[in-house]
Write a structure and sequence with these properties.
CATH topology of the largest domain in chain B: Rossmann fold
Order of helices and strands of chain B: HHEEEHEEHEHHHEHEHEEHHHEEHHH
Helix content of chain A: 25-40%
CATH topology of the largest domain in chain A: Rossmann fold
CATH superfamily of the largest domain in chain B: P-loop containing nucleotide triphosphate hydrolases
Number of helices of chain B: 15
Helix content of chain B: 25-40%
Number of domains of chain B: 2
Distance between the termini of chain B: 40 Å
Radius of gyration of chain B: 23 Å
Largest sheet of chain B: 8 strands, mixed
Largest sheet of chain A: 8 strands, mixed
Shape of chain B: globular
Strand order of the largest sheet of chain B: 6-7-8-3-9-10-12-11
CATH superfamily of the largest domain in chain A: P-loop containing nucleotide triphosphate hydrolases
Strand content of chain B: 15-25%
Structural class of chain A: alpha/beta
CATH architecture of the largest domain in chain A: 3-Layer(aba) Sandwich
Strand order of the largest sheet of chain A: 6-7-8-3-9-10-12-11
Number of strands of chain A: 12
Distance between the termini of chain A: 34 Å
Oligomer: heterodimer
Shape of chain A: globular
Number of strands of chain B: 12
């Protein structure tokens, strides 16, 4: 795994701007997050490694229950809070700007949270406190990390609201979350997340609850802000359209593990895992007349308590019988490099994969 | 559905003609649904949320009508009103020629066999205390229908039809995943062999891979059972995939109603154009083409006091004085493409004398790339020249209609 992580540095190789050296700002190594329950151990994340550099965007895609959100909460150190904290088993390493977080003192993580790393949640209505004004909540987030008086903090809050495109920020700063529309609320939450200029921004399905027109606005905003602040962005989504729009690198998760990782061009142009093919095939597309039928992934997502043996995807994989013997059912595939900075965890031979992709999958998309 | 798709592929222009010949199953005229806002001790009505505010359309037998729009545009209310789950405030609904606008609950009951609904939330629409068997057999119980071979056998057949196992008969909803629950909802809707199925966001709560399974299932069932669908969705890619004709709604009105190919290839209403340009395309190579995107300014206005004239004029980059004062009627500009706009895209300008942009439009235009503006100006100029050289009957009609709407 460590070996892989090292080679994994290539994943973040700059695709657009050549001047930023690969100095992985966020590095996750062999992260495991397990929850013991009455029904058994839920292995939400089971050995995940990736890294993101400043100024780059990594998109994590996968079905619900594939461990995307658990990963983001683990990075933020939010699993260890409150009653939930007693009930989680975490191992592995999370490095943020040279500091390790999994085994760090909770107080230290708290100092980093909000200042070095911030998060945007899917549903801004439940992520914000209904009882306090938007302004108050942003001011609080700012004053936790900065020793300033209320007046200065309020000025900063108005400045941030203005920056994220909220009209009349000096008036809206005193509004309550319910007085904002969905898109405006999401902007306010982005303002709150960015008020301390964090270097890592994690966005968990930031646009899923929004209309397409608003989604386009928010994605544009995230992209602009990233350019301006140079932060690293981890964006979690299930929408491959959003991924193609905003990602530099893509990580495809299935059953708590990474099944494919690579640059956005690699994953869309030369995907190397049958699950990625399935995702691409099941999406209706607006830009072209699709063939009569979509090609869905058959079956249901796996249970994280009884993850299928061998390759977790084998019960749903149409190509599970191609590799000789019952290797797909007994041996768990590890991530293998399949190109420069492109990794896939699949038992199919590279020749088979290339053949299936170019002959069977790509023409139907 | 696959039937019509084939005709679509064969000849784009032939599609609307082919659908025109089909019998009209549902006809909606001037449909309105206003929700009163009451205040004070006496609960006096102080206003109304105009969720649906005068819409007309027809659904023909065997076709799929897609309804798209942003949240709050009234598409779900429309679905609930045409199935008479809610009473309309005005207008009329005809099903198979029968006026069902004011039918009582009892009067509607026999029709419930023919009109069914599939709901968005597969978690909220199944009673957690009932088994799958009793959920799917409820329509038989309520309608007093005794299917051939008994209810249980029929329910098991339905479960198989939607891709579940007959052994699931005695299980409870919580034992199923989202996709499976949606299948149960579909089985229930199909139990009485309805003629019209109204599906409100049938796949939006599901993962992409499962979404594709359900879309394919609905497609198969349509060709197998000859169903007619009204599919309400906010996902334009899904709607493109499933629909024969598509209605685009904005603030309680239909702004464009068109067959699929024309709508996606040459949308006429600026709102449709903006809506479609905003859909992210799963192709990283297209990212450079970002300039095609039209960002809309601000949010959808409140349906309590919708803007005067054209409701889109507050966010439209082409809005002029006439848009503020006169409401454009939904007219058929091209065969099979109805649009409510004074200055449509990809077509001759309907109000060429009005050229001064509103101040809001100038602001909105700043968000639209110059290429888009130039391109749309070029197409409308070309079309105008073309129309001038040969005055086609269709555009003459449209001209009359426009005159009428201006007179109003």
């Amino acid at each position: 795994m460590t070996e892989l992580s090292k080679t994994g540095a290539a994943v973040g190789e700059p695709t657009s701007s050549p001047e930023s050296a690969p100095d992985a700002f966020l590095a996750v190594r062999d992260l495991k997050v397990h929850f013991p329950t009455d029904d058994g151990l839920v292995k939400s994340v089971d050995g995940l490694s990736f890294q993101v550099e400043k100024g780059k965007t990594l998109c994590i895609v996968g079905e619900s229950g594939s461990g995307k959100s658990v990963t983001s909460l683990a990075i933020m150190g939010l699993h260890r809070l409150g009653a939930r904290g007693k009930n989680v088993q975490m191992s592995g390493e999370i490095w943020l700007g040279g500091k390790e977080l999994v085994n760090a003192d909770p107080d230290e993580v708290r100092r980093l949270r909000g200042r070095e790393m911030a998060m945007i949640f899917q549903d801004p209505l439940s992520a914000m406190h209904p009882y306090y004004t938007i302004g108050n909540q942003i001011v609080e987030a700012y004053r936790v990390h900065h020793d300033v008086n209320k007046k200065t903090a309020r000025k900063r809050a108005i400045e941030m609201l203005d920056r994220v495109g909220i009209p009349e920020p000096d008036k809206r700063v005193d509004g309550y979350p319910h007085e904002f529309s969905g898109g405006m609320r999401q902007r306010a939450m982005i303002a709150m997340a960015l008020v301390n200029n964090p270097e890592l921004l994690i966005a968990d399905e930031p646009t899923t609850a929004l209309d397409v027109t608003v989604q386009a606005q928010i994605l544009d905003l995230i992209r602009d802000l990233q350019k301006e602040f140079g932060s690293a962005v981890v964006l979690i989504t299930h929408d491959l359209g959003v991924v193609a729009e905003i990602a530099d690198d893509v990580l495809v998760m299935y059953g708590g593990r990474c099944v494919e990782r690579g640059s956005v061009d690699d994953v869309f142009e030369r995907p190397q895992h049958p699950y990625t093919w399935g995702l691409l095939g099941s999406m209706p597309r607006i830009d072209r007349e699709t063939s009569d039928r979509l090609i869905p992934v058959k079956g249901q997502p796996p249970s994280l308590i009884n993850v299928p043996s061998g390759c977790a995807f084998h019960p749903r994989c149409p190509y599970a019988d191609i590799p000789k013997g019952d290797v797909t059912r007994t041996v768990r595939p590890e991530l293998q490099p399949v190109g420069s900075g492109h990794f896939s965890a699949c038992h199919l031979s590279p020749e088979d994969r290339t053949r299936i992709w170019t002959e069977e999958i790509a023409p139907k998309l | 559905m696959s039937e019509t798709k084939k005709t679509d592929e064969a000849k784009t222009d032939a599609a609307p003609v082919a659908t025109d010949e089909r019998e009209v199953l549902l006809k909606v005229e001037g449909l309105k649904k206003h929700f009163p806002i009451r205040k004070g001790v006496l609960q006096r009505q102080v206003g109304a949320v105009k969720a649906v505010d005068g819409i007309d359309f027809e659904v023909r037998k065997g076709e799929t009508l897609g309804v798209v729009g942003e949240s709050g545009c009234g598409k779900s209310t429309m679905g609930r009103v045409i199935t008479r789950l809610q009473d309309p405030t005005g207008g009329s609904i005809h099903f198979e020629g029968q006026d069902i606008t004011r039918l009582s609950t009892a009067g509607m009951r026999p029709l419930r066999r023919d009109i069914q609904m599939i709901f968005q939330d597969p978690y909220g629409s199944l009673n957690p205390r009932h088994t799958i068997g009793s959920i799917v057999s409820a329509p038989f119980r309520l309608q007093g229908v005794e299917p051939e071979g008994g209810v249980k056998k029929e329910v098991q057949r339905l479960l198989e039809l939607v891709g579940l196992s007959p052994e699931h008969y005695n299980r409870y909803p919580h034992e199923f995943s989202g996709g499976q629950r949606q299948r149960i909802g579909i089985a229930r809707a199909l139990a009485l062999k309805p003629k019209l199925v109204v599906a409100d966001e049938p796949v939006s709560a599901l993962d992409v891979s499962i979404q594709a399974q359900v879309v394919n299932l609905m497609d198969d069932l349509q060709s197998e059972l000859g169903l007619t669908y009204v599919i309400i969705a906010h996902d334009l890619s899904v709607v493109r995939h499933v629909s024969d004709r598509i209605a685009v709604m904005y603030l309680g009105k239909i702004v464009e109603l068109s067959d699929r190919t024309s709508l996606y290839e040459a949308p006429m209403h600026p709102y449709t154009k903006a809506l479609m340009s905003a859909v992210p395309v799963p192709d990283p190579k297209r990212r450079g083409a970002k300039s095609e995107r039209i960002l809309l300014k601000g949010d959808v206005p409140s349906p309590i006091s919708p803007p005067s004239g054209c409701r889109f004029h507050t966010r439209c980059w082409k809005a002029t004085e006439i848009c503020r004062t006169t409401e454009p009627a939904l007219v058929e500009l091209k065969p099979g493409q109805q649009v409510a706009c004074h200055h449509p895209e990809n077509f001759e300008d309907q109000a060429p004398q009005d050229t001064v942009l509103l101040t809001v439009a100038k602001e909105a235009a700043e968000l639209v790339a110059d290429e888009v503006l130039a391109e749309s100006a070029a197409t409308s100029a070309a079309l105008k020249a073309e129309a001038a050289s040969e005055e086609t009957p269709a555009s003459a009609d449209a001209e009359d209609d426009r005159q009428e709407s201006t007179d109003k």
